[in-house]
Specification:
Blueprint (H helix, E strand, L loop, with lengths): L2 E6 L7 H13 L4 E4 L16 H11 L4 E4 L2 E2 L5 H15 L3 E6 L4 H7 L6 H20 L4 E4 L4 E5 L12 E5 L6 H8 L2 E5 L3 H18 L6 E10 L3 H11 L5 H11 L2 E4 L1 H13 L4 E5 L6 H11 L4
Parallel strand pairs: 1-2, 1-12, 2-3, 3-5, 4-5, 5-8, 8-9, 9-10, 10-11, 10-12
Antiparallel strand pairs: 6-7
C-alpha cells in the first residue's frame, strides 16, 4: 500500500492560521504525514508570508497524535547541522518519534543572497552537504562525544544531551534524483529517499541505482522510497476541467489533461484515474507519495481528495 502525505510550500503565504488548519486537516482526514518546504522566500518576487519551519513543526509535534511530519527539505546551506540536529531530536521526542528530518544541499540563489548566506557552486554545495550529513548523523547516532574537523563545520567533543529517546534520533530523509552525487549519500546516511517528480518508470530505474549503492554500503533494504509529486484533481470530469481551465485561462482543458497524462509525472484526473496512477507508483517501488497541495485555503477540495482517494488505497 502506498501512503499518501501532504507537502505544502511554507514560503507561499503560510501563516499561523493556515498552518493550524492544515495540521488539523491532515490528521483529521487520515493522511499519513505532513511535510513543508524550508525557505525564506520564493525564487522570484513578490514575496509572501513565510512561517519559520522549525517553529511550525513544534506546533505540529504538540497538536497531533498520528501523522509523521517534517521538512522537505531543510538546506544545510543556511541551517547549521549541529543546531538542526538538536532541534530535530527535540521535535522527535516531543512527538513520540514522528519527526522526519529532511535534508538537502540548498539551491535557491535568491534567498541566500537576500539573507546573506553563501550558496556556492554545485561542487561546494555538495561538499558542504556531505559534511553536514556527517555532523548530523554522528551527533544523533553516536553514544560518545563527537569531534569533527571539516572544511565547513567543526566540532570538539560535542554531545547532544539529553540523548534522543528514539535510538539514533529522528528519521533522516535525503531528497533528490541525482544518481552520481545524491544517491550515494542516501545509501550512506539516510533512512528515507525522496525523489522528485518522476514517472513510475524513471523511479524504478533510479531505485535500481540506489539498490546498487546500498549493496556497496551493506545497507540493503534499509531505506524507505518516497516521492514528492504534483496533483491536478477533480471529483468529476467537469470539476477537473474547470480546475484545469482556471490554471490555464483561455486554454483547452481536455488538451491540458492529455498533456499532463502524457508527461506522466503528476497525479492528474478524477478519483478512478488518480487511484490507478498511485497503484502504478506502488508497483514501481514508491512506498509514500508526498502530494503537493498549493491552495492553503481550499479545505473543501482537500477533504474531497481525501475522502475519494484514501479509503481506496
Amino acid at each position: 500500500m502506498v501512503e499518501i502525505s501532504l507537502q505544502i510550500e511554507g514560503q507561499a503565504g503560510l501563516t499561523w492560521p493556515r498552518w493550524k488548519q492544515m495540521v488539523a486537516a491532515t490528521e483529521g482526514l487520515g493522511f499519513a504525514g505532513l511535510f513543508r518546504s524550508d525557505h525564506f522566500t520564493g525564487g522570484a518576487p513578490p514575496d509572501q508570508d513565510s512561517l519559520e519551519a522549525v517553529i511550525s513543526l513544534a506546533y505540529a509535534a504538540d497538536h497531533t497524535k498520528a501523522i509523521h511530519f517534517g521538512t522537505l527539505v531543510s538546506p544545510l546551506s543556511f541551517r547549521h547541522p549541529a543546531l538542526l540536529a538538536r532541534q530535530a531530536a527535540g521535535l522527535d521526542d516531543l512527538s513520540g518519534g514522528r519527526m522526519v528530518l529532511g535534508l538537502g544541499a540548498g539551491w535557491q540563489e535568491r534567498e541566500h543572497t537576500l539573507f546573506g548566506f553563501p550558496l556556492g557552486d554545485i561542487s561546494t554545495r555538495m561538499a558542504r552537504f556531505e559534511e553536514g550529513l556527517q555532523v548530523v548523523t554522528q551527533l544523533l547516532r553516536s553514544g560518545e562525544p563527537v569531534t569533527y574537523r571539516g572544511q565547513f563545520f567543526q566540532l570538539e567533543g560535542a554531545e547532544l544531551l539529553p540523548r534522543p529517546t528514539r535510538p539514533g534520533g529522528p528519521t533522516i530523509l535525503i531528497g533528490g534524483n541525482g544518481p552520481r552525487r545524491t544517491l550515494p549519500l542516501v545509501a550512506r546516511y539516510a533512512d528515507i529517499w525522496n525523489a522528485l517528480f518522476l514517472t513510475p518508470a524513471q523511479f524504478s530505474e533510479l531505485g535500481g541505482v540506489l539498490d546498487e549503492h546500498l549493496r556497496q554500503e551493506g545497507r540493503e533494504g534499509r531505506v524507505k522510497r518516497t516521492m514528492m509529486i504534483g496533483l491536478q484533481f477533480g471529483r468529476t470530469m467537469p470539476e477537473l476541467e474547470q480546475y484545469l481551465y482556471r490554471r490555464r485561462p483561455g486554454g483547452d482543458a481536455r488538451q491540458e489533461l492529455e498533456r499532463l497524462l502524457e508527461r506522466g509525472n503528476v497525479l492528474v484526473g478524477t478519483p478512478d484515474m488518480v487511484v490507478e496512477q498511485i497503484k502504478r507508483y506502488g508497483e514501481a517501488g514508491v512506498e509514500e507519495l508526498m502530494v503537493q497541495w498549493f491552495d492553503l485555503e481550499d479545505l473543501e477540495g482537500l477533504r474531497g481528495f481525501a475522502e475519494s482517494i484514501l479509503p481506496r488505497l
